[in-house]
Amino acid sequence: MNNFFTGTIDNGRARAAKLILRLQHEFLAPLYAxxxxxxxxxxxxxxxxxxxxxxxxxxxxxxVVGQNSAIISTMIFLSALAELSLKAAMGRFVPxxxxxxxxxxxxxxxxxxxxxxxxxxxxxxxxxxxxxTIDLLEETRVLPVILIFVPLFWTIFTVQDGVLIGLRxxxxxxxxxxxxxVIKIVFLVVAFLIGYRYxxxxxxxxxxxxxxxxxxxxxxxxxxxxxxxxNNSPASAITVKQVASSVAGDHIGNILSEACVSLLxxxxxxxxxxxxxxxxxxxxxxxxxxxxxxSNLVTSFSVEASFNLQQIxxxxxxxxxxxxxxxxxxxxxxxxxxxxxxRIFGSEYASQGTTLLRWLAIATFPMMLNLxxxxxxxxxxxxxxxxxxxxxxxxxxxxxxxxxLPKFGISAVGVAWFIAQSAVAVIAIYKMGPILLSRVxxxxxxxxxxxxxxxxxxxxxxxxxxxYPRKSICYTKGRLAQAVAAITSDQMMTQKxxxxxxxxLAVAANPSSSVLKAAHxxxxxxxxCYTEWDAWRMGGAHRIRRQLExxxxxxxxxxxxxxxxxxxxxxxxxxxxxxxxxxxxQQALSGDTSILRFxxxxxxxxxxxxxxFGLVLQLSxxxxxxxxxxxxxxxxxxxxxxxxxxxxxxxxxxxLFRTPGTHAFNGISYTVFDSNKxxxxxxxxxxxxxxxxxxxxxxxxxxxNLNESQKNPALLVPCPLFSLExxxxxxxxxxxxxxxxxxxxxxxxxxxxxxxxxxxxxxKLAERSRTDWPxxxxxxxxxxxxxxxxxFGESLxxxxxxxxxxxxxxxxxxxxLVCVHNxxxxxxxxxxxxxxxxxxxxxxxxxxxxxLDLVYSLSxxxxxxxxAWETSQTAAVYRRLLDPVTPxxxxxxxxxxxYADSLxxxxxxxxxxxxxxxxxxxxxxxxxxxxxxxxEGLSGRTIAGDMFPLLKTELVIQSENS
Length: 962
Known about the structure:
64% helix, 35 helices
């Protein structure tokens, strides 16, 4: 019994310690810490604001309060006009401004000062001319002169908050605004004692110049120097065009949003009366509070994603989950207790406004995703979604409210708001699906330099029989035209060149009938026409196919490209069988609950219908001139499938074309299905670059050897099927796994359990590869590691660190060699019924040092378990991983020691092998970035990569322990 209670207490302490550690992690992580500071700022400002106005109502007469509040509102309105959404722009551009940050901030202030003076002067000039300021201001001589400068100060006061947020100093926004709200209450009491009619307005604005001076002293003397020391990589100057486009999108979107929010009370007032507007306004304010909390979380996301654009996928998921934790419970409380909440204002408020408030609470769920989508678009500088989707929300909400208010009352506004938010949420899901469902991000701060993105733009060529066209003609401009020119070996022609009749490839976007006929005429017999279409505008797949047929093309294939044509992940043929859609639904919604099964079935039916009829935003089409059976990779797959499963079996074949990855070396693949089955059968791999074809041959050879030997317990690895050359491109095919990816199983699984399972798997691999295969000499891997270290070590490491690293590597020369996977991460591991399987052996090698796969795998498993993907967080987790006192550190040490004992590796060699792991992966990152960007395009951050902090941490720990 005592043991039972002791065990229960220990488990409780362990769970409490884990919870405390998680809370510390959240409050220290900038993504969450800044969000919490902004939320607290909102809460404190609202509470102190209530105290301020309640005190003003008791100290001053109603007419004085009314006139002064009108002055305050007017000045804030003029400031809002002059602010130009530069507060939000600072949150986006300050994080990436680098050494140009001071110039950026001063430029924003200068613009704000100029526009503020202009707007205020125009306002008072028009006010005097049209006499609409007479009721606002009784003293028309001195007061207007003073008030000309008030919006100027208030604008800077607002924009400096954006600067603080951009510098990751959101806690100072909380300090500053709390001080402002407290000091203006003190000034209010003093104003009452003075007795001047406009002293109430003075109490509001007098603290502002003092706070501007104090906060900007901190910004320029303390925060900017610290920012520069922490962000010492070179950055490109922020252009006027970048800021102007961002500001324009934000400002127009904000105007649309404010128009919706501001016009609704006026609409209610005019359509259903004053008392209905009172009931509406209180419910609307409560619903808007939830909106502001969710919005503050997105503000923090925008800043952190701007600091590290490559982690935008991780930040998107994390902030959405955090919004779900904070906002959804709040929305549920409002939904359930709406009558009790409104009863604070009176029983009639509860009776009239409960239904409205509940609809506003329900609308919170799609609204959370929409706010994230707006923040995501803002970070990328994509202003179109900001304008379009805010316009959709405003149009639907105002339009339906206008139609329904007279008939259904104020509840109609809540229904209209929910419909509007849900409509935009569908677009947000479509656009952000890949970001939310995977860890792959297609965005980089170096995108302007990365020529490899041109290759990604023409990955569709691997769906055709023309991989490297000799002669091409392009009927479009921009990146697509540049990409086509990059792969054309001989001559690139434009739309003006109408004399060509022997082109291999023709490319067009949303072509007219005349353009399609011109493209058909320009192609040789057997030539390929690639087109991209706004399917929703063109009438869907059927009409697109008919246009191509009318122009004379045949062998037409249409594809739904997801998420978008510029950065595609998957290409889905619209003729695909139902099995492929089952597979897509399983990938999106894994799990075995009844709700998830129903959701998968609904998603499968929805996708099948949507794609079959081409009712998607964009489609691409590939068509041929005078070809019935194209000699493309699809033809190869059908032939091999028929040989394997018999004649006629190819009719059951479906495929998914994948073009993932953000690097030029990433491969391209076909996932092949039986039409009615959800599990894939084959994976066909194709190199994006000719020089990477050798890695596919090496992978195929290693898989052959792994599958030949059956003396040891079976290892779950893909089975190689065939390797051949087609269209001068090496392709290999292997069996596909049918199971659950390891990252989808991590939640709720102890780190120790998965770590031991991974260790067991790698021990089986080491045992087999040691006994069955010939290896290189033991000196060659060591020489390769030294070369890898020297590629980046001289420029990134201190001389003492480089010497220490070389000395540590020298101790590895007598160690045994094993087959290594070299990318043994959770993303390449899958759980089948028979156990753990490993795929993607494209970076594997016959002869490598033991333990490297294990260190890399367990480290990435720890990062995944701890949800740590910022470089500072990964370094902190890695430190805990090397501390045997921590739970994950003990499991990590036990696994490494057990592996070392099985291969007779002395334990004192383990630190050197850990170091070798990060040298290997730092070198890979450097080479990959060099291939993508070229030597001249490498920035400081790109050179270092994400693995470099782990290498530095390992060197520091070894120095501490020596």
